């Protein structure tokens, strides 16, 4: 008897947990998890697709939550709705600004130059301190000026 009462409770609790995990304070940073992500004009599959992203790892700012949907803003300032499960809480960044950005061996202008990174390059964001952020693009790691990255700081 106890098992019949307890097992449905566990199943219900397991189903309820992900919804609670979706509750976050906005705005917050996220990245695109899917290889194809439809940006819609409203929070439902019934709304028109406004744009299609094909860049997993692209950072986005989540600005509103609604029942499994997220209103996001991309690095260009475009806003629209996406399915929440296709976003990841992993932090990423995209190189912005004019010209090549220096990726250095350390968090200093005096550190050895490892690579030069073009605007539009997407990578994994690490810790940021004193105006520099750890940044990894594929198997290349280094430090990039925080001012050259979108997806850092308070959203």
Automatic annotation (TrEMBL):
Residues 1-21 form the signal peptide. Pfam families: SH3_4 (PF06347). Keywords: Signal. It comes from the Bacteria. InterPro entries: DUF1058. This is SH3b domain-containing protein. It comes from Qipengyuania mesophila.
């Amino acid at each position: 008897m106890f098992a019949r009462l307890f097992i449905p409770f566990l199943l219900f609790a397991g189903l309820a947990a992900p919804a609670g995990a979706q509750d976050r304070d906005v705005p917050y940073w996220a990245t695109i998890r899917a290889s194809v992500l439809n940006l819609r004009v409203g929070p439902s599959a019934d709304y028109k697709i406004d744009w299609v992203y094909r860049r997993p790892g692209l950072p986005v700012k989540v600005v509103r939550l609604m029942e499994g949907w997220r209103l996001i803003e991309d690095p260009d300032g475009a806003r629209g709705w996406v399915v929440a499960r296709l976003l990841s809480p992993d932090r990423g960044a995209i190189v912005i600004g004019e010209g090549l950005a220096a990726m250095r061996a350390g968090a200093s202008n005096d550190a050895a130059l490892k690579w030069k990174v073009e605007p539009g390059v997407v990578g994994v964001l690490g810790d940021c301190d004193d105006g520099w952020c750890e940044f990894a693009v594929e198997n290349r790691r280094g430090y990039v000026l925080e001012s050259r990255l979108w997806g850092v700081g308070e959203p």
